[in-house]
Amino acid sequence: MKRDETIDNRRILVIDDNESIHEDFRKILAPPKDSDSLDQARVALFGEPPSVLFRERYEVDFTDQGQKGLGLLQSAQREGCPYAMAFVDMRMPPGWDGLETIEHLWYVDPDLEIVICTAYSDHPWEDVSRRIGSTDKLLILMKPFNSIEVVQLAHSLTKKWNLTRSVKQQIDSLAYCVSQRTVELQEANDSLQENIVRRIEKTVEDQDLGDAAAVFREKEEFLAIMGHELLTPMNELVSKVSLLLDSPLNPEQREHTMILRRCAQDLLALIKDMHEFMADRARDTRTGDRP
Description:
By secondary structure, this protein is an alpha/beta fold.
């Protein structure tokens, strides 16, 4: 199974030209498996707290330049194993700086959560915001940083990425469901119209005019059954979309979900109109039969 089909992606990319920073991130985010037992021994023997809280391990890749980081990101996308987030250093001579690197990363993967690792003197936040724009996918980690800050950012942003991907999959699933239901409804309507035409033609050919009321009554019963079969899945679809609207969505996802709900409501209105039309025809037929 490809990684992007799961709901617990912990892949992190670190782009920094300082090898010692790589080692720091590795100790914090991908410590050796025996480190937990060492922490427990320290607590038992010396009463020392664990070196890092929240011992969650991440799959971390490292590179020292923005161009190389872009290559790793592209490979991950092609393999279906995208990164959930990236830590990007602001200054990485002689290649791209952090902002240029981020622009290239987001061009390939707009869903990537990014943390800029910087000192205030590198780029004031006003300059960063002016160049990158307003986004909820960018945070700042000021140097020097400590391990708890890194752990909290990794934990929060990977969870956010996974939640966003899960919501997107639900929206795609609902969109497919609406599309399928629309096709089924159209096919049922076409079949119904053809059946009505055949029944009317047969009535004209084989029966007296006085039998038309019985034919319309039979048609009305058929439509009632067909309408019930269509209404049940459509009402369920509207209910599921309403539940999705109550979940945390970004503006683009909420707009798509609103479109889904509007389409489902339009289909329900179409079914209702069809019922009313047939009821009117049946009433006219009954009235016409009276002496």
